[in-house]
Each structure stands twice: as structure tokens, then as C-alpha cells.
């Protein structure tokens, strides 16, 4: 790889991973690299070294290659805090970014801000860049964007702005329950059994207050009613996602205008859950959206420079 | 201690602890002992030794001291499985117990069964003995008994029978969320702040489907709205207990006829939660109820023998 082709660096720095793309001046991906040095494992003084670990061989002395970062690296426990902007707002760009001072002279580092909502209190870091990336390809989109994950976010987007959003701890709940609670004895990871999943969705939609009782019910059904570990896995997933879907006002999403930013099993589960409630959705790559969001931010940098 | 005073042994053998009482013929407590050798730490072949560890010094050769056990020692993963009896039923007694064969000749071991409910599927082991003990002192009680814990149970009791019951994984949910989820960063164990606790109860009662969003809301309020770690602790407790209380039909409990079997902080939290919903309750010692239930079972043994 000829290092002189690298024009700038796009970085998605989350809690558990650091992902970077080495970009050409025309926004071609020259290389993609990643490490497990997520924000959660680093003290503020360790971020620069973690970044240079992935970059050191391709930086030009004194060229000041721009690095544009989104995600948890900008949190209070991150590298440098990048203050939130407040909803309703357009997805933040480089004008709102926080510059990291005192870094290696071969790089200039900008961290994009997150977005906060005052009431109900909510926060995002990283997702705003993914939304910007999605809107770059569909600028007139109005509807709801679902970003599945440890903390799944549902974002109302209207006329290019993030109008409001809501975060659910469902992914983390599911992981804790399936791996660390008493349910772990009777739950086995497997393909989603659509029947068990969908009936759990409907059960919890009917009586969401029964959540903690339905959880124990999975244990009891395993002990006395022959619920298999794989069906228990699907039922647990259905209860957690079903409660979440019951909480959403999806009337703001005209048919087909629920976008799921993701293409993995979790994204499939949300699509299946929406379907069980009679709602259609579209899935689209979150990695592409992230990169497009970072490219958009970097393009603002170029505009500022000219 | 003169070992010849020991007439029988009462044992409450749960998942995490083994508690025994050395009892005289007239049901006075000669000694109380306990170990951390709960069912969860033992293989079937290890139960007898764990019991004898606490007893060895006070058994008479060939006297065949009766040991009456309730709790998880009778589960499938326990010492010997003691099959469930089915609701509606009177709390099971020694006639329903499972005899453990082949033990040390100085003891005869009986394990009381648990209770199961077919629809909705539910199970208990140990609580049935506590209910029996409570009913021994209030035989005409009709109402609801709450047994707070890792898996809190709410039991409808009518005319001396366990009519139906419902188990909530709330205690385990709270522990996982406060100690192992992202919320651990912003939650600090402290005295319950009644205002934060009660407002969480009312919030989740209004919209129980928002549970996973309200959980993340605790994180967000800590980051951007100044929620203190101690208020966050109370809010988390209020959300978990409030969702549970919203799921219950408490119309079956005439005023004052919600009994909470427990006297610890968790029992206090349930009492405060019921109060926030305008319901009164009475707390009573669960240890006393357990022992009385075991005494009741043992007294049936004596009747059988005569």
C-alpha cells in the first residue's frame, strides 16, 4: 500500500471496538482496520496510542492527516469529551466537533458530538453519525430509524432532523438474562423459532406489566411444561423485543418507513417482531451508514478549508 | 450442649445457604447453625456430607434422628428430587415428602415437595413451607402473601389452601441491572429515597411497556440531568417493584390482608411500594414462618408414628 494515497482517516470508536477506515482523497476505502481497544478499556491518556497502533505505518511525517471520530471516544469517560448537541437538530457535523489538542504532529483529531434529548432525558453517541450517513443517501426520508444494539435506539427523523428518540436497554437485558440469570440453565442460543418468538411478542404486548413474571415463566415452563432450551431462547428474545415494540408510537412511520440500520441476527429479530405486529420495515447496512456519516463530516472539513 | 436433648432437625436448604435448627421434643430451639453450602454449590452426592458437617457432633449412634428439609435441596439438581404437588392445594406436609434412602444410620431424611401451578406455569420450593408456617398462626387467613426475594412470589391463599401464585424475577433483575449493567456506573446502594422510589412506581404503573426505556433513562438522567447515584438506586428499585405491583390483581386482598413474609430492606421496599398505590400490608418474620412450617411437618411425622 502506498502511504501517500491516504488522505484522511474515518474512525468509529465505540465502547468495545475501534474501527478505522484509511480513506483516499476521493473517499475510496484504501484499507479497513480494527482493534478491540474500545472506550471501555482505555483511560484518556491511552487513546492516542490505541489509535496510532492501527495507523503508525501509514502516516506521513508532518502531513497532519485528519482523523474524524464518532462514538463513545467523545464521552466523559472517553478521550476528550465532545459536548452533546440537543434535539431537535440536524445530525451534528464537523462544525460541532471537538478538536483534540496536543496529539502526534502527523494527525489532527476531531471527535463528533453526540446528541441529547432533554425530556424524556436520553443520549446517543455514534448513532447520530449513522443517521447522517443514512440521510446522505435518502435526504427526504421521514419516518423512524431503528438502530439495534446493546442499547437499541428508535429515532424519529423528519425533514432531515432528528426530531426525538428513545433508547431501550433491551440488548443488555437480553444478554444479562440469557447468560447470567437463572434462565441460563434453560436457554440455548439458536436460530429464532418464529412461532415461539411471535407468540411471546403478542403475550407481552397484551400485558407488558407481566414482564418479570413472564421471565420466571420461561424457567417454570422449562421445569414443568417441556419448553425446550431453543424455544426458551426465542421466547426470551420475543418478550424483550416485544415489550420494546409495545412502547413505541409507530404511527409516525408511514408504511415501509421503519428503517432498521443493521443486517445481523438482531436486526432480523426486530424485523420479525415488527412483522408480527403487522408492520413492514427495511434493513440497511449500518457499517455503510457509519462510513457515509464520517465521509459527510469530513467533506465539511474540506469545505471549511477552502 | 447435651446431645441427648436433640429430638429432630429442621432444615431450610436453599440455593445459596443451608440453615438448620436443632430441636427438642417440645420444639424448643436448642441451636441454630448454618453454612454456605447451598444447593447451587453441591452435587447430589455432596449433600449428605454438607448436612453432617453441621450435625456430626450432636447425633446419637443408631438413634435415627429425623431431619425435615424444605427448599431447593428437593429440586431436580438437588439431593433427591421431591416431586411437586399441584395447585390448588393445602401446603404440602410430611405425607407428601420424599424419603432419602441410604443415608448415615444416625439420621432419617425427609424432603418436603414444592408446589407447581399448571397455567400459568409456575413453581415454588420452600415458600410452601413458609406459607404453612404462617397459616399455623393464622389458620383463617384469606388474602395475598408476598414472599420477597430473588424470585418474589405472590400467593393467593384462601381457606387454608394455596389457590394460585405468581413469581417475578424482579430481585434478580434488580441485582443484574444495578451490579452488572451500564447502570452500575450511576447507581449507588443507599437508603431508599421514598420520593424517587414512589415516583418511579407511578411512572412505570402508567406505562409498564416503557420498562427498558426507563432503565436507560436512569443512565441518561445521570449524564445530563443530575440524577444522583443514590436517587438512581431508588428509582431503579421503584421501576422494578412498580412494574411487578402493576401486574398484580390485588383486589383479592381485602384491606390489610397483604402479608409480606420478610422484615428486611426488600420487605420494606415492597411495603413502601404498596403504600404508594394506596394499599396497606403487614410484615411478619419469614424465619419464624419457615421454622413453624417445618415444625408442622415434623408434627405430622409424630402423628404417623403413633
UniProtKB/TrEMBL annotation, chains A, B:
<dbReference type="InterPro" id="IPR042258">
    <property type="entry name" value="DGOK_N"/>
</dbReference>
<dbReference type="InterPro" id="IPR007729">
    <property type="entry name" value="DGOK"/>
</dbReference>
<protein>
    <submittedName>
        <fullName>2-dehydro-3-deoxygalactonokinase</fullName>
    </submittedName>
</protein>
<dbReference type="InterPro" id="IPR042257">
    <property type="entry name" value="DGOK_C"/>
</dbReference>
<dbReference type="Pfam" id="PF05035">
    <property type="entry name" value="DGOK"/>
</dbReference>
Amino acid at each position: 500500500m502506498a502511504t501517500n494515497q491516504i488522505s484522511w482517516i474515518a474512525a468509529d470508536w465505540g465502547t468495545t471496538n475501534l474501527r478505522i477506515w484509511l480513506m483516499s482523497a476521493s473517499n475510496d476505502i484504501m484499507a479497513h482496520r480494527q482493534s478491540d481497544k474500545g472506550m471501555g478499556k482505555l483511560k484518556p491518556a491511552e487513546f492516542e496510542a490505541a489509535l496510532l497502533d492501527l495507523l503508525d505505518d501509514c502516516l506521513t511525517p508532518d502531513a497532519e492527516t485528519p482523523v474524524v471520530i464518532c462514538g463513545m471516544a467523545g464521552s466523559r469517560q472517553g478521550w476528550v469529551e465532545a459536548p452533546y448537541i440537543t434535539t431537535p437538530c440536524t445530525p451534528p457535523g464537523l462544525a460541532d466537533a471537538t478538536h483534540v489538542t496536543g496529539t502526534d504532529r502527523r494527525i489532527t483529531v476531531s471527535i463528533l458530538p453526540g446528541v441529547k434529548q432533554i425530556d424524556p432525558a436520553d443520549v446517543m453517541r455514534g448513532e447520530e453519525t449513522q443517521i447522517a450517513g443514512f440521510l446522505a443517501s435518502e435526504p427526504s426520508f421521514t419516518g423512524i430509524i431503528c438502530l439495534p444494539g446493546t442499547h437499541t435506539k428508535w429515532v424519529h427523523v423528519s425533514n432531515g432532523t432528528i426530531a426525538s428518540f428513545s433508547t431501550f436497554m433491551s440488548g443488555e437485558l437480553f444478554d444479562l438474562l440469557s447468560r447470567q440469570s437463572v434462565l441460563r440453565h434453560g436457554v440455548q442460543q439458536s436460530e429464532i423459532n418464529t412461532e415461539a418468538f411471535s407468540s411471546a411478542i403478542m403475550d407481552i404486548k397484551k400485558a407488558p406489566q407481566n414482564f418479570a413474571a413472564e421471565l420466571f415463566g420461561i424457567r417454570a415452563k422449562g421445569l414443568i411444561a417441556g419448553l425446550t432450551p431453543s424455544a426458551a431462547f426465542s421466547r426470551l428474545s420475543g418478550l424483550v423485543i416485544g415489550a420494546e415494540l409495545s412502547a413505541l408510537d409507530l404511527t409516525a412511520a408511514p408504511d415501509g418507513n421503519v428503517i432498521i440500520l443493521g443486517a445481523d441476527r438482531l436486526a432480523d429479530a426486530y424485523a420479525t417482531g415488527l412483522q408480527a405486529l403487522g408492520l413492514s420495515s427495511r434493513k440497511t447496512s449500518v457499517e455503510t451508514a457509519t462510513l457515509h456519516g464520517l465521509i459527510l463530516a469530513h467533506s465539511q472539513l474540506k469545505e471549511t478549508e477552502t
